[in-house]
Amino acid sequence: MIPVKISLLMNLHQHKSFIFNSIRRKTFNTNFWEVDFKGFTKQIGRLIKFETDFTLYLFTRHFVSDVPPFGLKPRHQVNLLLLIAAMFSEIFPKEQVTLVNGDGAAFSKLPFDHLIFTGSKAVGRSVMKAASENLVPLTLELGGKSPVIISKGYSLEKAASRIVYGKLLSAGQTCIAPDYALVHETEVNAFIKAYDHHVKLAYPEGPTGDDYTSIVNDQQYAILKKLLNDAEAHGAKIIEVEGKKDY
């Protein structure tokens, strides 16, 4: 396996370097526009998951003056949506940044030149159906699984630390959160102990602490409880991590 370093956020200099290099290619993509320096512009619609993608968008938009106007369509179930909309309206003129509400199907009925969707297969079908009315081409990034494979002899402390970060970031509500770990049978108990330890290091006050967040709504919380109960009914051993330090 080859270690890969990924940088999520770039500074303004890196953004401009990206844009200038793209100008040499005569075209570059933003999240809502594809600009061709020969004079042709495409309007791009992008439906994203709120839990992480939308947050990253807010961070990276500090270079808003470098790109064309854009719109944001966060998940409509988010309780803080009205507050976010009010904050945006105070900072940006609506001609520059617009935040719209509504579900994905309603948004995908708009006559974009291209539509990009990130989410589940079920919602992806409705988005595709709605977009087909305007013959809008689609790019679909649908849900998948994210297993973790730990080779025998690899540092369980290092593996557990990294898995805890990836799994519990935003309470597991990210598209790349690990779903399960494949561990050699002789190291299962040691891995469980290491994982338990690093959960307590990361969140010493447990799920009720200020450093941990909540599930987006009651419906999703009920789904998680159902999955947990089903796993236990089929023989899975449920191990709870207590919200206290063990060091």
The third-level CATH topology of the largest domain is Aldehyde Dehydrogenase, Chain A, domain 1
Shape: globular
CATH architecture of the largest domain: 3-Layer(aba) Sandwich
Spatial order of the strands forming the largest sheet: 1-2-3-6-7
Summing up helix and strand content along with how strands pair, one would put the structural category as alpha/beta
Regions with little confidence, pLDDT below 50 for 5+ residues: 1-40, 60-68
How many separate helices?
8
**First-last Cα distance:** 32 Å
Query: What would you give as the CATH superfamily of the largest domain?
Result: Aldehyde Dehydrogenase, Chain A, domain 1
Overall tally of domains: 2
How would you characterize the largest beta sheet?
Answer: 5 strands, mixed
